[in-house]
Automatic annotation (TrEMBL):
Gene symbol of the encoding locus: catA_1
Residue span, Intradiol ring-cleavage dioxygenases domain: 140-168
Family, similarity comment: Belongs to the intradiol ring-cleavage dioxygenase family.
Cofactor(s), names only, from the UniProt record: Fe(3+)
Record's protein name: Catechol 1,2-dioxygenase
Region Disordered, residue ranges: 1-32
Organism, as annotated: Pseudonocardia kongjuensis
Amino acid sequence: MTTTEHPGSGAGLAGANATESARQGLSSRRAATGAADSERIATVVGAALEGIRAAIRDHRVGYAEFDAFKRWLIDVSDTGEWPLFLDVYLEFEVERVAADSQSGSTGTILGPFWLDGQAQLTSPATLPMRDDEPGTPFVLAGQVRGTDGTPLAGATVDIWHTDDEGWYSGFAEKPPAGNLRGVVTCDDEGRFEIRTRKPAPYTIPLDGPTGKLTLAAGWSPWRPAHLHLLVAAPGHRTVTTQLFFTGDEYLDSDVASATKPDLVLDPQPTGNGAEIRSDYDFVLEPE
Ligand code: MBD
Ligand code: FE
């Protein structure tokens, strides 16, 4: 797949919608720690600013570059790309810090494209899709357990991913609202079975400031194909993760630095036509 095969339009929509969900508290499901006392602000913001000042000094940044930087920041705001830029270039470091004090299944970043209020389904479930939804039929199945091995009845798997062309519903014109998104309630033994389509690799919008910066630096704008998951159960910490696919050409060059070896699936044919399936269990730590 080349970048030109991925229609570049709709980038503005992507950025703006992600801004709106961020504003409305998309991240409010993460516990607010309120750790913003003045000493903490001075330490963290001071270190961040000093990093930028060091880049200016060390690399002899001039007024033309400083002005270009100002214009770029204004563009990020105007296009609504703050969630995209921050989740691509910074969220993975925050997630690594968080992961240090977590047990249970391996997590990774949430990214900017989760949406609230999606189809509520019961396992075995088929995600909402078009009659002629393109792509390889794919089944994800598994069990949600606690760290002590107990199956977690009432667990839910909130899943969202791109279609076979790399588009997210809600953030692109083409897929209808709710396409390939759903919240699946597991059975009494925490088991789930979800029928969908295998997603495609995804390029961040190339016509906005995040994509333009990425290309201007000569970096790859691609993410490997991935499923996003929020796996939750009463009394347990929600696991935020993504699952990738073995053999994906972008596994080692994810623009969002979100891949981890534990998160790579190797789906196998089920014998039912072109359908493939992966089994993946989740372990949640008590809250
Ligand atoms: C995505 O699809 C994504 O998952 C992340 C983390 C950033 C940009 C686009
Ligand atoms: Fe994504």
